[in-house]
Amino acid sequence: MVETMIHARPRSAALSILAIAQTIALSGCGGHEAAPAPSSPSPEARSASDAAEMTPPPWLVSPASLAAHEDAPAARASAPVPSASRDPAVVARAWADAVEQRDWALVRAFWGEGGTRSGLSQKAFAARWGQLVQPRVTLEAGQQEGAAGSLYDTVPVTIIDGAHHYRGQIVLRRANDGLGASAEQMRWHIESTTFPF
């Protein structure tokens, strides 16, 4: 049997070893019968199992993937994508969700010009907003108004973070339709907030 195992394919050998180990383990458990040894698979089954052995499981990460994933946080941090909805309530909810998930790069991206209108670098923004540990955000209905070629939507917000309660607002802004504005100017973005961070 040992000679057979040496010349068998690796999968067949592994199955044989498992069967032997199971037999040995069960033989010490009084009253249980040993499981029968697996039969030798047909050539077709062997081809399918060999193909399956060559396909890595989905949870296995290759070294090349690791390098790509190591760059991903830096790439994502520099260009997160906020909501592009034409509905300011949807944009405000997406912002609130990002706050609750503590995704500070995405939270910052809701400000105009990809976050630069927040007035803070990405690192400074994360440090300031990062004081929130487990934020829960409640939004009230926004009030929309227009002025000088722009639309504004002022949304009352409550952020509860443990024993801390912050009440303030976010002001969303976008350019009116048909003014030759850029896509960035046409998307609802945060113009300002009244929070202490």
List its salient traits:
197 residues; alpha+beta; five-stranded antiparallel beta sheet; 19% strand; globular
In short:
The protein is α+β, with helices and mostly antiparallel strands. The protein is built from eight helices and five strands; from the N terminus they run H-H-H-H-H-H-H-E-E-E-E-H-E.
Q: Can you lay out the helices and strands and say which pair or pack?
A:
Blueprint: H1 2-7, H2 10-27, H3 43-54, H4 63-78, H5 88-100, H6 104-109, H7 122-129, E1 136-139, E2 143-147, E3 150-161, E4 164-175, H8 183-186, E5 189-193
Antiparallel strand pairs: 1-3, 2-3, 3-4, 4-5
Task: Report on the architecture of this protein.
It is a single chain. Helix content is 42%, strand content 19%. The chain is α+β, with helices and mostly antiparallel strands and 197 residues long. Strand 2 (143-147) and strand 3 (150-161) form a beta hairpin. It has eight helices and five strands; from the N terminus they run αααααααββββαβ. The model is unreliable at 1-8, 31-35 and 51-77 (pLDDT under 50). The termini are far apart. Strands 1, 2, 3, 4 and 5 form a five-stranded antiparallel β-sheet that branches. It has helices spanning 2-7, 10-27, 43-54, 63-78, 88-100, 104-109, 122-129, 183-186, and strands spanning 136-139, 143-147, 150-161, 164-175, 189-193.
